[in-house]
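haha ok so turns out i had the wrong file open the whole time. this is the CORRECT one, sorry everyone. sequence first:
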Amino acid sequence: MKHILLIALLLTAILLSACSPKGPVMLTIMTHDSFSARESVITAFEQANNVKVVFLKSGDAGAALNKAILSKDSPLADVFYGVDNTFLSRALDAGIYEPYASPLLAKIPAEFQLDPQNHALPVDYGDICINYDKAYFTAHNLPVPATLEDLAKPEYSGLLVVENPATSSPGLGFLLATVKYFGPDGYLDYWRSLRANGVVVVDGWETAYYTNFSASSGHGPQPLVVTYDTSPAAEVIYASTPLTDAPTASILGPDTCFRQIEFVGILKGTRQLDLAQKFVDYMLGQQFQEDIPLQMFMYPVNSDASLPQEFTQYAQTASQPATFDLAVIAANRDKWIADWTAAVLH
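then structure:
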């Protein structure tokens, strides 16, 4: 009788334990440093899935990818967001992702789906362009350059700041635009002409935009900068006093901008595969996609996502951006960067 009673008590304890609510599971998302999402958007996913989402910011996109590759045998995260199409081939070759064909891909145009095996799924896009300070060109009675060739003319000497493509994804994107525009046999001559015309090279976007660019810093020496086509909208949104027009604009000639696409993928070795898939679905879903423009100043890829008024009014997109097949970038990226470094910095 005592044994029966003991067994009954043990079974009751086990049943109560099984029925008691468990604490949230942790899901780790590796990102580049520019990742941002509203707290309420992340909280909605956490509450719906009884999960705690932790973000592991890991430097710029290139540095984050290096970290993901070096740790692939013992991954630091469950999901990795932020690799773009300039480095996607490297991520795929390293085999860091689990394939996942999210049902939300049906909402995303084919032009953004660059990996047929769905190891990496598109999340957002933007055009890397040259932006200009409107007030500077008006004050100096100087026409805004309309083409890449114009930037090498004497009247624009010393007026352009660019990022080093070896250390900056916007810098690499603009380098690729010049390769597309002038061809693999002509882009270095173009860069030599820019160097002779006083082009300024800095390591990263923040220095270029907030230190060198005249419109954002208010006192930088260069009124032309390599940045994003969404930067004019950001200038309006973050203005200290309300603006009725953007103080900057983008140069949008054919092949003068590079179309950057950012991707998310599930890291091989995750112990939270089901939750990782749900988070990828969430990033591609309408709620998260509509949060992207005012958080990361990129465009959503989901065709159902609406844009905020500031984007429709002030941001611009190129009608013919420069694009490359992944295989072409993979085969030539390192050489193009090395040759650019020799021609421009040495």
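The chain is about 40% helix and 20% strand.
again sry for the mixup
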